[in-house]
């Protein structure tokens, strides 16, 4: 009899995932990537602001563009989160 090490590590976890679990994993990964991108743009904007404040060469356009990108990406992420939350709540209200 062959014992799977994965089963020993996670005995409560089923062997195969269904389509719903795959969808949840995919959405989770996509949303995680979106959060990472928003964070990257925010850090980039922070760097531009610091550079603008300390550098003798003032790049106001680059700084404002970086700030706007960061703000826009954050608003987009919040809208996507709200849509996902509403979809989840709608599914939970669906009678079986």
Folded structure, characterized:
This protein is mainly α. The protein has a domain of 61 residues. Helix content is 78%, strand content 0%. The longest helix is centred in the middle third of the chain and has 36 residues. The radius of gyration is 21 Å and the shape is elongated.
Based on secondary structure, the structural category is: mainly alpha
Order of helices and strands: HHH
Q: For the CA atoms, what is the radius of gyration?
A: 21 Å
Q: Helix coverage percent of residues?
A: over 70%
What's the SSE blueprint?
Layout lengths: L4 H5 L9 H36 L5 H34 L3
Helix pairs in contact: 2-3
Short recap of the structure:
The protein is mainly alpha-helical and 96 residues long. It is 78% helix and 0% strand. The protein has a domain of 61 residues.
Features:
78% helix, mainly alpha, elongated, 0% strand, 96 residues, 3 helices
């Amino acid at each position: 009899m062959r014992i799977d090490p994965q089963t020993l590590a996670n005995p409560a976890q089923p062997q195969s995932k269904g389509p719903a679990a795959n969808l949840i994993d995919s959405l989770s990964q996509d949303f995680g990537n979106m959060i990472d991108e928003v964070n990257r743009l925010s850090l980039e904007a922070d760097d531009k602001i610091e550079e603008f404040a300390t550098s003798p060469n003032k790049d106001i356009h680059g700084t404002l563009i970086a700030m706007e990108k960061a703000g826009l990406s954050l608003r987009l992420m919040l809208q996507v989160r709200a849509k996902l939350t509403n979809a989840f709540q709608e599914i939970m209200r669906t009678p079986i």
